[in-house]
Amino acid sequence: MLNSPLAQRLLALTFCLAAGTPSGWDETDDYVFVPATDRWVEVFNDRTTSVGRLNATGKFLPFPNELNKPKGQPRSSIDRRIEILNWGPEKNVYEFRSGRLIKGELNVKGYFVPEIGAKVIDFKDYRYHKDAPRIWNLPGRFEKATMTSMK
Length: 151
Known about the structure:
This protein has 151 residues and is mainly beta. It contains one helix and twelve strands. 10% of the residues lie in helices and 35% in strands. Strands 2, 3, 4, 5 and 6 form a five-stranded mixed β-sheet that branches. Strands 7, 8, 9, 10 and 11 form a five-stranded mixed β-sheet that branches. Strand 3 and strand 4 form a beta hairpin.
């Protein structure tokens, strides 16, 4: 269903309406954002783990049969790649919320803790590069810009 070209274009349009298009973007930018809400992700919280998807606003939507399983417990037959979003404590990360980025850290239990007094920025003002703070719950990925991706 989400693998059809039309569904992918509608998803990209939905995301752009929620997050906006990066301001000042031109052909010299190295990376472009590609929405990917169809990928399966895993989130650790304290002693449990949950598998699900991120929606276009960055909200984690767990699968009911994969919610709050004890860490280390074998899974039932999941036969696809799952991306772990919060594998351990991490400082200097952003959390994505409805087109905005909130600076903070992931604590040892896997929870995001906002930085007190940090400025909330629009996603459209974020510039991805290899040393930029990671957006731990980004509903997509950044790819090298090509002539095809700029159309």
